[in-house]
């Protein structure tokens, strides 16, 4: 950008003469500056310039730029590269050599951004029949045949290999300090493929630990890396934090105590320990004593006043402040908050320890769209922001169950300054696109940087079983009648609400309560339906010499206490939670019209009218209204006069001057004017007809008002009578509904029922949050309510007392809820009397997986004599799987990022419906039921040959969706569509799988199961299509092959400045094939073992492609009607083939010589080319069915280079190559395990160009 010349200042001239205009330089243009408006001379060819006076950068306007230079003719190709595709540029028409697999690039001639779409390639050429080669002067290529076998293999390769064993045994890889952990500990195999940084920190308390053996090698490793991490600062200046993700039993509490003791030795004597319950303060005291830190005091914040903690009155100068997350957001009546109290105690320069124990309680800081962040999450964020030098520890086995819940872990440095994610939302978006595999990569990154440990007790020996409890006939009938009643109640509420349409806010509140109660009601019903099965399982376990732990979430205490308040302490039977819930809903929320007020007589009406219309003597109605309005507004003024402005006073005086009779319009005889107390009219007595001659009272009213008042009285009486009639009718309807509810056969409270059937409180230890319970009287007739606490045991110690009775073997059945089981250990501990094997029955799955893991961890802990048996109970109702759906979704993530043995509980994945695929399936199903789209699947119980059955199902399904409020604004059609139901489903419901499964519970069992099966059919179709299109997220996949060898030296492409961890590119040579000898041995061994089937053998494809046939070995699976397939080029196929598909595509070979020759030929050819043949469009970049492959994996740190990789992959032609795929492989030569991102061969050059630098790994 140049500097234009400024015309020279002319010499002074006589005032009468204008200054001469200087001549501009030859060829230059004169323009006015846009800033100072001075005249500038712009040299020829200069388009951008800076004004030398005001320094404003600017450019010539378009009209002064002149005509654009003539476009060059399309350049001729300098030479054709036969290894690339020749395509014309869309702008300059230059013939370009485009590498195979490159989807986006810039034209080297004109610089335009170009994209290649092979599916639309033909449209660039003169005729539809012309090929690219013909257009470029080459002889035409015959049309390509569709190779069905290649398509099958490509789909399998896109989906990836099966996931291998999830966990491996764990030992600290770089530390050999301390004794081994008392129980086997495991780590996810993907995390085990990553090495943490070299430990450089030396513990001051190491000598004490070696003498006491208080901490195991795992716990010491955590201390070293946490302290080492705390020595670093993030780029925003805050001290780096550490995340302990260990599962139950590894000893997180004792590890935290060790960290506090280590910091104490360095003079950092103040610590904050935030946990879930104040009772855990005793555990904190015990853990500190165990590590030798008896001198450190533990102060419970909830027992302290709101004054300054270090004041003389309180006197806490150092030690550990133990508080709960609820205390963190508490405040006093005077407005002092616990958070400010803690910040004052710590001080701005605080560099001690802040421990967020069980930090998943701070979740939902970054909530779903439409909801608000929790106050707890915001408080956790604020205390970190106010104490930038604090040494933060995040501690939770389940803190990362959802990527969204990482939002408060700001000290990990995964986003923000110095990362490729400027904000947490960017980080979250990348993880959402990456799926389950991306979560695993985050965990690997954190471990590689030395900020994360995640070990868990091995689940070896623990047994998981999903048991479906069939509904008994009585429960089935109960459920059906309840569903019908709820549908009728909805119609009744709609009708009753029609009279109250003006109160929309109240109406919406009623419907929110209705659907919340609807969900709670049927959840109670589902839980009650499982009680008989739970009792049977419990009694069977007790008979086998085991003990039982039953887990549930809700206790029904609120309904029980309401019933006791209403009916008294002694009842005929246990309270029915569902019934009390229904009664409360109807009693408190049934919309009744307002009850009309009673009016004693005419005098009261006149009094009401008089008060309403009475006026101040001498002031007009207009002035009175003004004064009242001003008085209301200026309520804080010192006097009434001050609240009136001058204009108000003027208008008042003006009104008084013009008081005239409204009949004769005469201003005379003002003193005789009469004022009507109703309408405020002013009239002369003589102007009235007949004239008024009687005395005038204060409540005098004119003749017209008297007539109107009488008419009003009659109309009012009629109106009040009608309102009263409506009110009484509505009240009668409400009473009838309440009577119907009381007559319904509904189950008792499940918790009370369980305790009663398993022997009563004498035999069952209850660890819940409820204060009282109903127990059966000694005579067996009726029940009585009694408090759980006694004179000997206070309420806050009841659960600990019950736990001790269970661990001593005095009670062999324990029932736990979320509220009562936090921090409780119920495992078969070797140190207690009751070492019987635990059978853990989940009667009610919790709402989220973090709660589920906490519940599972009660019975699976360290130092146990035997691992528990888990029995997950579900009813056969399709809708109840909604609760399993939520848990399964989070368990899948937990297994990836923290702990949770997917080998032990694979069946839970079958219930994961609340996914992207589930949302797509739901929308397709809704559109099909509403007859907006044709049905791609046949509904259950219907036949494609009989369309009537399908139409009948659609009618039933539509009616069912109407009854549960999903289809709205329904009308019944007339004309040719007479009788059909029409309506709409709002957009927010179209993808809400949770709401669908929730509302499904409120349908009769037969209908809900058919509708649920219909939804599953759509889900299977969506998943099938995603697999075919290469879009299915299968998480981490294993690359299996006969030979996997590292090719050359790995390349370092990035180094993290904080930890020194690197991003490394590995290149492997993979041989996937199976030789003829190996295939023949497989078949021979099967025949020798006597397990061969008649259809086992070698097959060849029925069709030829490029003059070749494909060969396979098919071995029938036992009694399944499917075959395990082996191919010469790729070995064992991932999916089994159906018998019908095998028969249709292949024919069995009778000649072993022909099979041998064909197999060996395909084995040899596949070493150098893909299944599409030598003329494949992608050339050497295509790997479909190729036996020998080059595989590129980017391992180590991935997050710092995530954006570059995503950008490079987005340019790829094949859909499956654009997706971030996390893979795992193990070399066959030295068993080196690598986990990382798979980079397709076609994309490797683009990825390397986008990354910063490459260097050989030294040594």
From TrEMBL:
GO terms for molecular function: zinc ion binding. The keyword Glycoprotein does not apply. Residues 1-28, 157-181 are annotated as: Disordered. InterPro entries: P-loop_NTPase (IPR027417), SBNO_a/b_dom (IPR057332), SBNO_Helicase_C_dom (IPR026937), SNO (IPR026741), SNO_AAA (IPR039187), Zinc_finger_PHD-type_CS (IPR019786), Znf_FYVE_PHD (IPR011011), Znf_PHD-finger (IPR019787). The keyword Transcription applies. Residues 1-27 have a biased composition (Pro residues). GO terms for biological process: regulation of DNA-templated transcription. Keywords: Metal-binding, Transcription, Transcription regulation, Zinc, Zinc-finger. Residues 658-708 form the PHD-type domain. Pfam families: AAA_34 (PF13872), Helicase_C_4 (PF13871), SBNO (PF25373), Zn_ribbon_FGT1_1 (PF23547), Zn_ribbon_FGT1_2 (PF23548). Belongs to the SBNO family. PANTHER family: PROTEIN FORGETTER 1, STRAWBERRY NOTCH-RELATED. This is PHD-type domain-containing protein. It comes from Musa acuminata subsp. malaccensis.
């Amino acid at each position: 950008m140049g500097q234009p010349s400024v015309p020279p200042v002319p010499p002074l001239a006589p005032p009468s003469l204008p200054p001469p205009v200087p001549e501009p330089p030859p060829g230059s243009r004169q323009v006015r500056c846009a800033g100072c408006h001075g005249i500038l001379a712009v040299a020829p060819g200069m388009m951008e310039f800076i004004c030398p006076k005001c320094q404003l950068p600017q450019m010539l306007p378009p009209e002064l730029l002149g005509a654009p230079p003539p476009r060059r003719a399309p350049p001729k190709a300098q030479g054709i590269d036969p290894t690339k595709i020749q395509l014309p540029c869309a702008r300059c028409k230059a013939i370009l050599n485009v590498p195979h697999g490159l989807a986006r690039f810039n034209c080297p001639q004109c610089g335009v951004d170009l994209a290649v779409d092979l599916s639309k390639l033909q449209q660039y050429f003169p005729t539809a029949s012309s090929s690219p080669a013909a257009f470029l002067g080459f002889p035409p290529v015959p049309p390509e045949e569709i190779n069905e076998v290649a398509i099958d293999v490509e789909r399998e390769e896109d989906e990836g290999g099966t996931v291998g064993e999830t966990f491996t045994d764990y030992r600290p890889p770089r530390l050999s300090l301390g004794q081994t952990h008392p129980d086997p500990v495991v780590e996810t195999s993907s995390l085990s493929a990553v090495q943490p940084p070299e430990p450089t920190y030396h513990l001051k308390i190491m000598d004490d630990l070696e003498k006491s053996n208080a901490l195991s090698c795992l716990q010491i490793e955590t201390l070293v890396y946490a302290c080492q991490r705390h020595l670093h600062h993030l780029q925003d200046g805050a001290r780096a934090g550490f995340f302990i993700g260990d599962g139950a039993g590894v000893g997180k509490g004792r590890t935290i105590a060790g960290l506090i003791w280590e910091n104490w030795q360095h003079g950092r004597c103040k610590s904050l320990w935030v946990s879930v319950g104040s009772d855990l303060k005793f555990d904190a005291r015990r853990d500190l004593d165990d590590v030798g830190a008896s001198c450190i005091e533990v102060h419970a914040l909830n027992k302290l006043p709101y004054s300054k903690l270090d004041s003389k009155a309180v006197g806490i100068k150092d030690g550990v402040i133990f508080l709960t997350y609820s205390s963190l957001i508490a405040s006093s009546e005077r407005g002092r908050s616990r958070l400010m109290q803690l910040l004052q105690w710590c001080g701005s320069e605080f560099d001690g320890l802040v421990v967020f124990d069980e930090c998943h309680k701070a979740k939902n800081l970054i909530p779903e769209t439409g909801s608000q962040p929790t106050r707890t999450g915001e408080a956790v964020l604020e205390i970190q922001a106010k104490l930038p030098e604090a040494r933060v520890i995040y501690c939770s086995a389940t803190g990362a169950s959802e990527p969204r819940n990482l939002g408060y872990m700001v000290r990990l440095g995964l986003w923000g300054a110095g990362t490729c994610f400027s904000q947490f939302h960017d980080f979250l978006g990348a993880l959402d696109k990456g799926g389950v595999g991306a979560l695993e990569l985050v965990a690997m990154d954190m471990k590689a940087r030395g900020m994360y440990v995640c070990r868990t007790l091995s689940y070896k020996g623990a047994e998981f079983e999903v048991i479906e409890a069939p509904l008994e006939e009585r429960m089935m009938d109960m459920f059906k009648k309840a569903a019908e009643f709820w549908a009728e109640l909805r119609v009744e509420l709609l009708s009753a609400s029609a009279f109250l349409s003006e109160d929309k806010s109240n109406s919406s509140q009623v419907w929110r309560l209705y659907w919340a109660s609807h969900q709670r009601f049927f959840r109670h019903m589902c839980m009650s339906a499982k009680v008989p099965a739970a009792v049977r399982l419990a009694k069977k376990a007790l008979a086998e010499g085991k003990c039982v732990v039953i887990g549930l979430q809700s206790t029904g205490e609120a309904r029980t206490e309401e019933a006791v308040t209403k009916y008294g302490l002694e009842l005929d039977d246990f309270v029915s939670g569902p019934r009390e819930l229904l009664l409360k809903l109807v009693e408190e929320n049934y919309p009744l019209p307002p009850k009309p007020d009673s009016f004693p007589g005419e005098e009261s009406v006149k009094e009401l009218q008089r008060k309403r219309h009475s006026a101040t003597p001498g002031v007009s109605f207009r002035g009175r209204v003004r004064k009242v309005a001003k008085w209301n507004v200026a309520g804080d003024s010192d006097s009434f006069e001050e609240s009136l402005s001058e204009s108000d006073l003027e208008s008042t005086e003006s009104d008084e001057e013009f008081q005239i009779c409204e009949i004769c319009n005469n201003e005379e005889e003002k003193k005789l004017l009469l004022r009507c107390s109703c309408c405020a009219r002013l009239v002369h007595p003589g102007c009235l007809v007949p004239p008024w001659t009687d005395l005038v009272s204060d409540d005098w009213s004119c003749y017209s008002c008297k007539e109107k008042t009488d008419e009003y009285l009659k109309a009012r009486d009629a109106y009040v009578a009608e309102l009263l009639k409506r009110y009484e009718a509505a009240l009668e309807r409400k009473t009838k509904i309440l009577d119907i509810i009381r007559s319904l056969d509904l189950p008792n409270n499940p918790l009370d029922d369980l305790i009663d059937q398993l022997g009563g409180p004498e035999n069952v230890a209850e660890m819940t949050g409820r204060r009282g319970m109903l127990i059966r009287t000694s005579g067996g007739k009726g029940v009585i309510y009694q408090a759980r606490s006694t004179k000997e045991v206070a309420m806050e110690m009841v659960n600990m007392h019950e736990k001790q009775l269970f661990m001593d073997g005095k009670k062999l059945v324990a029932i736990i809820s979320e509220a009562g089981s936090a921090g409780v250990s119920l495992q078969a501990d070797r140190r207690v009397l009751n070492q019987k094997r635990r059978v853990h029955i989940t009667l009610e799955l919790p709402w989220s997986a973090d709660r589920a893991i906490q519940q599972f961890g009660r019975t699976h802990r360290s130092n146990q004599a035997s691992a528990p048996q888990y029995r997950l109970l579900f009813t056969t109702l399709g809708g109840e799987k909604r609760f399993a759906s939520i848990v399964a979704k989070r368990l899948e993530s937990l297994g990836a990022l923290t702990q949770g043995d997917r080998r032990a509980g694979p069946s839970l994945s079958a219930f994961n419906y609340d996914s992207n695929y589930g949302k797509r399936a739901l929308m397709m199903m809704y559109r099909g039921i509403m007859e907006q789209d044709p049905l791609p699947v046949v509904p259950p119980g219907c036949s494609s040959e009989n369309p009537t059955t399908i139409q009948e199902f659609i009618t039933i399904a539509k009616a069912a969706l109407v009854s549960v409020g999903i289809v709205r604004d329904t009308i019944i059609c007339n004309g040719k569509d007479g009788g059909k139901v029409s309506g709409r489903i709002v957009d927010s419901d179209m993808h809400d799988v949770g709401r669908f499964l929730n509302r499904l519970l409120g349908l009769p069992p037969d209908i809900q199961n058919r509708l649920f099966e219909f939804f599953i059919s759509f889900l299977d179709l969506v998943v099938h299509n995603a697999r075919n299109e290469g879009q299915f997220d299968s998480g981490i996949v294993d690359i299996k092959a006969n030979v996997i060898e590292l090719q050359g030296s790995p390349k370092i492409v990035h180094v993290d400045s904080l930890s020194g961890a690197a991003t490394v590119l590995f290149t492997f040579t993979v041989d996937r094939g199976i030789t003829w000898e190996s295939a023949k041995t497989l078949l021979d061994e099967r025949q020798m073992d006597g397990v061969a089937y008649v259809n086992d053998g070698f097959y060849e494809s029925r069709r030829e492609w490029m003059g070749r046939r494909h060969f396979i070995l098919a071995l029938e699976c036992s009694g399944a009607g499917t075959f395990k397939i082996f191919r010469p080029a790729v070995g064992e196929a991932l999916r089994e083939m159906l018998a019908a598909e095998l028969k249709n595509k292949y024919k069995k070979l009778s000649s072993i010589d022909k099979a041998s020759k064909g197999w060996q030929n395909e084995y040899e050819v596949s070493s150098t080319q893909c299944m599409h043949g030598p003329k494949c469009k992608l050339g050497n970049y295509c790997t479909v069915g190729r036996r020998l492959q080059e595989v590129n994996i980017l391992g180590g740190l991935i997050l710092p280079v995530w954006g570059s990789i995503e950008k490079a992959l987005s340019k790829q032609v094949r859909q499956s190559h654009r997706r971030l795929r996390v893979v795992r492989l193990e070399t066959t030569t030295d068993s080196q395990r690598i986990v990382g991102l798979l980079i397709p061969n076609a994309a490797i050059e683009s990825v390397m160009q986008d990354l910063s630098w490459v260097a050989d790994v030294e040594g």
